[in-house]
Amino acid sequence: MRSRVAVLAVIALLLATGASVANPGGEGDADRDYTCGGSCHGDPALSSPSDGTVTVTADPLAFSGTATAVHVTASGMSLSGNRLLGVFLLGSANGNDDHPEDHGWSILQDPNGGTRNYIEIVVPPSGSVTLTWVMLAPEQTGIQTLLVEIHHGSSPNSNNWAFSALTRGYVVDVQPMPENLPSFAFDWAPETRVTGVDSPTVIRTRNTTSVSVQWMLEGEWVPHDAEVTGEGDEWHAMLPATIGDTRIQYQVTTSNGDFSIVQPWLTVATEPAPFDGEIWGARMQALAFAFLVMAFLLSLQARLSPWEGRPELDHTEEVEEVETPPEPPGLEPADDYWSRLVASEENPGWLWDPVDEEWVADPDNPPEGGE
Amino acid sequence: MLGAATFHAAMAEVVVGSMVLATLCAVGCAIATIFPNIAGGRLSSERIMVTMDKASIAGALLGLVFMPIAALSGSFAADNVVNNALLYNKFVYTGLAFGFWASFIIGRVRLGPGVWQHRSLSALQGATAVMALLMTTMASSIGGKLVRGESLFDIMPVWLPSDSATVLNPILSAVLLLVGIAALVVVFRLGPKAERISLD
After folding, report:
1. Which of A216, B17, B74, B121 could form a disulfide with A220 if both were Cys (CB 3.0 to 4.6 A apart)?
2. pLDDT in tens, B168-184
3. Domain that holds residue B143
4. Which residue of A has its CA nearest to B190?
5. Whether A276 contacts chain B with CB within 8 A
């Protein structure tokens, strides 16, 4: 009976390993083709259509080389326990060369502050999330198509499927840039600042004679004006430092005498301060802790165990002797008692106690017969 | 050619597996000593106690031998670069685990199997094994966090800090290292000599 239970327990444990899924914690933001280039998520046996709704909002007209925003809203998905959602922004759905940059676009900023076409985000409890890619339109004019794919898990997910959805293509008509249109420099990308640092944000432009910048914290409604210095094609905007989880958004307006272009909102991309630990410090700290723990526990073992020399060092009796309280009155030392006893020649071996008026056996000369 | 990361994963599995066995048996011995009548006295029977004692020392020894190999291969897998708090804490927890396991083994070897007949020592050995396993699982869970973005400890209501690290100045670490070595010398050379406890 016991062996059967043991075998069943082992089988249950082995089967439980099959319940795990590939990368439930996600793989992080990256540059990816459609369905990760035909990976397991593209296998119909391992995937299923998502029950979510994805909408894409983009300006249908863009000028070549200018910034344009693509807003993606995903809602209504049945998500896994960690509520992780992966979103792809694609130029095609072939399984290769699907990155928008393969189609001439340049990603200025992704929703997480980087420059990737695939990002992962934790969907808030509302179940809806809106993400914005800011991109520079291709130099080559003509009709361009943008697609969005999402993928996510589900809870419960007994088949270990990946749930995915692909939108239809959204068409953007890329027109030649009007002459003298002020815009960002084509090779400019927002800098990433270290948390807590308030160094000026560098903005590089073209065809621009003046720049104004407004900023606001994410969730605010009223923007603030930022101080901007610079000239020519390089400008410095003073934006406050990012602290903690706060996100600062800013909007640049590039102007010259003929045009004034309000660029899409960007996010101040921040990264944590570089980690100041190094491997030899970590190794030394680990060894130090190991030795300290060993010293403490070994001394504790020695203290609790019987050890050599304990009798010699054990002064319990001496301490008790010193600390023993005096006898209470009436229980005086025996010397007084024996001194009051009177020896008797008539009764050898016996002493007379005049106080208690009784005979007491003499310990030095016991009565004959041992009585 | 086997990659360092794959080799590290295999070594870490050997360490964690053998140390789980060691901890279960050590805790079993401690419980049997403190509560001799538990499970109708079957747990504290001589046959079970000898088996658990041998399994615990064998598991702990195997884990301790493989722990430096796992640590070194993990270090190579990370290209010998510590660039985040998680990785730094992995080193620190590995060091702590090594300290606890070494103490467990040294205590058992110095005091003999009779250590399980002594209630306070038995409790100390059991607690040491539990702490050692906690440190070992923390170090291995951080590996899961680094590679897969999740670990078994995510479902626990409380777990030890790992997202932020207390980075000591290397000079302070060196001083602590010397203090630790000096403390060990004092314990072994100048402190009381622990006697092997004779079995009843």
Report:
1. A216
2. 898 999 999 999 999 99
3. 4-190
4. A299
5. yes
Q: Do A307 and B106 touch (CB under 8 A)?
A: no
- Token look-up 């302070």 returns B172
Total number of domains constituting chain B: 1
pTM: 0.60
| Per-residue tokens: B179 | 């203090």
Determine, yes or no, domain membership for B181.
Answer: yes
Q: Name every residue whose Cβ is closer than 8 Å to that of residue A73 and which is 6 or more positions away in sequence.
A: A54, A55, A56, A57, A128, A129, A130, A131
Contact B99 A297 (CB under 8 A): yes
Q: Does residue B41 fall inside a structural domain?
A: yes
Helix H, strand E, coil C: the string for chain A is CHHHHHHHHHHHHHHHHCCCCCCCCCCCCECCCCHHHHCHHHCCCCEEECCCEEEEEECCEEECCCEEEEEEEEECCCCCCCCEEEEEEECCCCCCCCCHHHHCCEEEECCCCCCCCEEEEECCCCCEEEEEEEEECCCCCEEEEEEEEEEECCCCCCCCCEEEEECCCEEEEEECCCCCCCEECCCCCCCEEECCCCCCEEEEEECCCEEEEEEEECCCCCCEEEEEEEECCEEEEECCCCCCCCCEEEEEEEECCCCEEECCCEECEEECCCCCCCHHHHHHHHHHHHHHHHHHHHHHHHHHCCECCHHHHCCHHHHHHHHCCCCCCCCCCHHHHHHCCEECCCCCCEEEECCCCEEEECCCCCCCCCC
Please tell me if residue A21 touches chain B, with a CB cutoff of 8 Å: no
Mutate to test the interface with A, among B75, B81, B98 (most CBs of A within 10 A): B98
Q: Residue A371 has what pLDDT?
A: 43
Q: Hey, is the C-beta of B43 within 8 angstroms of any chain A C-beta?
A: no
Residue A321 distance to chain B (closest CA, Å): 26
**Whether domain A183-271 has CATH 2.60.40.10:** yes
In a domain, B12, yes or no: yes
pLDDT in tens, B90-106: 999 999 999 999 999 99
Q: For domain A26-175, give the CATH number.
A: 2.60.40.10
